[in-house]
């Protein structure tokens, strides 16, 4: 008996296992069933048999209780079956009793490990009666490998998940009643959601306290299609100088008849390294920025892609890739872009995975799943394999392109910085302008930059030192300092990760609960 979390995986996994049984790669017949997610949880109200009305401790105080947590015995959790799970548990008990062995194939994360442990409890499985199997993609090779190489149930992960649930209950059930009493019924607080809410409040306070300051820059039209603006330099410095309105207007008058001379042209080659493959947080951010998908929507679509055997497991904080995945990238890059587009940088230049200091998972990055021939499925063949929504197709395409791009060369650009002096009546104003031209598109052949990144480039005409520029119009341009922007979903998830708040599996939930509660 193989037990997975989601019923949508059952048919796919059953077909894969049946194929291996038929060719004698596996010696047993398999039946695949689902736990439909979690089996047990902490009760929503106190169900302890020890609790009695008007029970008073020897010190004369009423006992402090929190539903499902035995505070007097080391914060031991007390679990109950989730509503409606009784018939399912009976069915699984019957199947387990008639099976020679139970394979617990729940997801390879904390929640999945906890579900596997709860199954051993409700099914009353002795250690000799079950094995834990894990796979990070639903493909034949990975499932065969998992079944042939079972692992021990990771009790450390189980304890970690259990501790989080206890802390969630201690925080939520303690603070939420205060909100009901002091603010309004129906509100909630939580260990993680309240920290997320505090981040939003802090940012809004920063915006409210921010005082906008006007400043001016000078724009000089110095020939066709060349209008350097706003980078008047401080005397003896390379830093920009912001002007007051009166000073800007006075400088416009002085410079209206000035002679402008190019005094320095400096060109350098700059390389922009390829992006890392996706982890949960960066997938959510990029899907929000590029595809306009909400964080929770991204995870829902990614779950579908995973269950269809199209991508690896989508809840991870790792950017590492397996050797098999590296080989598949090489095949795809060489086949589509040529052998010179596969980057084999030196140890000093090639970008290595750099995971968050809070990273805890041992999974791979999010990438396309390996097909039976050991390569990735190209997006153009996607719909020939499975029926997908437009959003799922676009998300898969983005994951595919990003995975290839991470092993392609950097973008090479020619960066030019020009220093221009405007001199008139003993007054000298220095302008600094810069521009860039792409000389090697690098990884963007696979993973195009978005419009915002493209707009960062500025084209400069060919200039040489000592060249006199014809002054056209000189203008004072008004600006205002801007407060820090409000969070969008992408920037909020990025900040959560940088602060170590939440986990890949909870980012979308934090965002959603703040929306559902109308806190934001």
From TrEMBL:
Documented EC number(s): 5.6.2.1
UniProt-recorded Gene Ontology molecular function terms: DNA binding; DNA topoisomerase type I (single strand cut, ATP-independent) activity
Cited InterPro entries: Topo_IA, Topo_IA_2, Topo_IA_AS, Topo_IA_cen, Topo_IA_cen_sub1, Topo_IA_cen_sub2, Topo_IA_cen_sub3, Topo_IA_core_domain
Record-annotated membrane-spanning stretches: none
Domain Toprim: 1-138
GO annotation, biological process: DNA topological change
Alphabetical list of PROSITE patterns matching this protein: TOPO_IA_1 (PS00396), TOPO_IA_2 (PS52039), TOPRIM (PS50880)
Enzyme kind, highest EC tier: isomerase
SUPFAM superfamilies: Prokaryotic type I DNA topoisomerase
Keywords: DNA-binding, Isomerase, Topoisomerase
Catalytic activity: ATP-independent breakage of single-stranded DNA, followed by passage and rejoining
Coiled coil: none
Domain Topo IA-type catalytic: 154-520
CDD domains noted in UniProt: TOP1Ac, TOPRIM_TopoIA_TopoI
Pfam family, one: Topoisom_bac
Family: Belongs to the type IA topoisomerase family.
Descriptive protein name: DNA topoisomerase
Taxonomic source organism: Phaeodactylum tricornutum (strain CCAP 1055/1)
């Amino acid at each position: 008996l193989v037990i997975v979390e989601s019923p949508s995986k059952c048919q796919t996994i059953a077909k894969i296992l049946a194929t291996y049984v038929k060719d004698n790669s596996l010696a047993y017949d398999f039946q695949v069933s689902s736990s439909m997610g979690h089996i047990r949880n902490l009760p929503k109200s106190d169900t302890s048999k020890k609790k009695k009305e008007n029970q008073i401790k020897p010190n004369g105080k009423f006992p402090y209780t929190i539903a499902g947590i035995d505070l007097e015995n080391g914060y031991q959790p007390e679990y109950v079956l989730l509503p409606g799970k009784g018939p399912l548990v009976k069915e699984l008990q019957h199947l387990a009793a008639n099976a020679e062995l139970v394979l617990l194939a729940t997801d390879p994360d904390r929640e999945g490990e906890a579900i596997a442990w709860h199954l051993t409890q409700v099914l009353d499985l002795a250690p000799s009666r079950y094995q834990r199997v894990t796979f990070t993609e639903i493909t034949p090779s990975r499932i065969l490998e998992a079944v042939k190489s079972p692992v021990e149930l990771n009790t450390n992960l189980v304890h970690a998940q259990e501790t989080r649930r206890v802390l969630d209950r201690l925080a939520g059930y303690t603070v939420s009643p205060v909100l009901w009493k002091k603010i309004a019924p129906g509100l909630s607080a939580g260990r993680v959601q309240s920290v997320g809410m505090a981040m939003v409040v802090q940012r809004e306070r920063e915006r409210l306290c921010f005082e906008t300051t006007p400043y001016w820059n000078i724009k000089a039209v110095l020939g066709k299609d060349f209008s350097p603006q706003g980078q008047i330099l401080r005397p003896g410095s390379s830093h920009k100088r912001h002007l007051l309105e009166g000073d800007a207007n006075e400088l416009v008058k002085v410079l209206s008849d000035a002679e402008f001379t190019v005094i320095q042209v400096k060109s350098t080659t700059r390389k922009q390294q390829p992006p890392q493959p996706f982890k949960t947080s960066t997938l959510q951010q990029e899907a929000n920025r590029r595809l306009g998908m909400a964080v929770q929507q991204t995870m829902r679509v990614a779950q579908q892609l995973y269950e269809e055997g199209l991508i690896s497991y989508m809840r991870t904080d790792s950017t590492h890739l397996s050797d098999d995945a590296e080989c598949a990238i090489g095949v795809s890059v060489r086949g589509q872009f040529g052998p010179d587009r596969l980057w084999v940088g030196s140890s000093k230049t090639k970008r290595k995975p750099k995971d968050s200091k809070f990273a805890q998972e041992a999974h791979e990055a999010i990438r396309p799943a390996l097909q039976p021939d050991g390569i990735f499925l190209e997006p153009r063949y996607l719909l020939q394999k499975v029926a997908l929504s437009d959003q799922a197709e676009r998300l898969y395409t983005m994951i595919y392109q990003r995975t290839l791009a991470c092993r392609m060369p950097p973008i090479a650009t020619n960066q030019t910085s020009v220093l221009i002096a405007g001199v008139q009546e003993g007054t000298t104003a220095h302008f600094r302008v810069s521009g860039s031209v792409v000389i090697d598109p690098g990884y963007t052949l696979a993973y195009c930059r978005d419009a915002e990144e493209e707009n960062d480039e500025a084209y400069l005409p060919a200039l040489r030192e000592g060249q006199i520029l014809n002054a056209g119009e000189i203008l004072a341009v008004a600006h205002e300092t801007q407060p820090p922007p409000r969070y969008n979903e992408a920037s909020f998830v990025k900040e959560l990760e940088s602060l170590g708040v939440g986990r890949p599996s909870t980012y979308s939930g934090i965002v959603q609960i703040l929306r559902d509660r109308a806190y934001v």
